[in-house]
Design a protein that fits this description.
Its main location: membrane. This protein has helices at about 1-5, 25-35, 80, 95-100, 100-110, 135-145, 160-180, and strands at about 10-20, 50-55, 60-65, 85-90, 120-125, 150. With about 180 residues, the protein is α/β, with parallel strands linked by helices. The structure holds guanosine-5'-diphosphate and magnesium ion (MG).
Length: about 180
């Protein structure tokens, strides 16, 4: 009990968007349960996972939402985006089309959320270096153009997964303090 009294608890809703099969659900399960699913079956029904993260002594409950297969029909609902303060826009570095579609996902995000949402462009599956179709430079320059953070991840071998969420959460805190000031 004593510990709980020392700090506030924060709840941040973070959405994960991007084309089907880029690895959104696996980024989420790696982040929240440190698990990877080798079967490509679409995740149906799972709305979000929560994970406690400690940032600079602050306890954050990251509530990370998964499109749960809706994205296959380009039918991600406005309820999905409602209240989001962070977003991971994911593509697959081994499939160029998923990178080309990032702009469509950003457009959708912009129609549902205001510009203060902390955004991270995520090039997932960086373990697939031998069949890479999107260079690191291309990812970086798109991120710069669109004003996003950028990182490459692998949900398979855990590279940068926690870090991606951590950077977004830090930016959410920055946004909060900017609004207060
Ligand atoms: P979603 O449709 O975006 O939720 O994608 P999933 O998480 O279901 O993953 C789609 C497929 O890609 C599955 O077969 C996963 O095993 C695979 N996958 C996901 N992340 C990675 C990764 O980082 N590296 C590799 N090699 N495969 C991945
Ligand atoms: Mg999924």
């Amino acid at each position: 009990m004593g510990e709980e009294e020392t700090g506030e608890e924060y709840l941040f809703k973070i959405v994960v968007i991007g084309d089907s099969a880029v690895g959104k659900s696996n980024l989420l399960s790696r982040f929240s349960r440190d698990e990877f699913d080798h079967n490509s079956k679409a995740t149906i029904g799972v709305e979000f996972q929560t994970q406690m993260v400690e940032i600079d002594g602050k306890e954050v409950k990251a509530q990370v939402w998964d499109t749960a297969g809706q994205e296959r029909f380009r039918a991600v609902t406005s309820a999905y985006y409602r209240g989001a303060v962070g977003a991971l826009v994911v593509y697959d570095i081994s499939r160029r089309t998923t990178f080309e579609n990032v702009k469509r996902w950003l457009d959708e995000l912009n129609t549902h959320c205001d510009t203060t949402v902390a955004r991270m462009l995520v090039g997932n599956k960086c373990d697939l270096e031998n069949i890479r179709e999107v260079s690191v430079e291309d990812g970086k320059s798109l991120a710069e153009e669109e004003g996003l953070f950028f990182i490459e991840t692998s949900a398979l071998d855990s590279t940068n997964v926690y870090k991606a969420f951590e950077i977004v959460i830090r930016e959410i805190f920055n946004n909060i303090s900017r609004k207060i000031l």
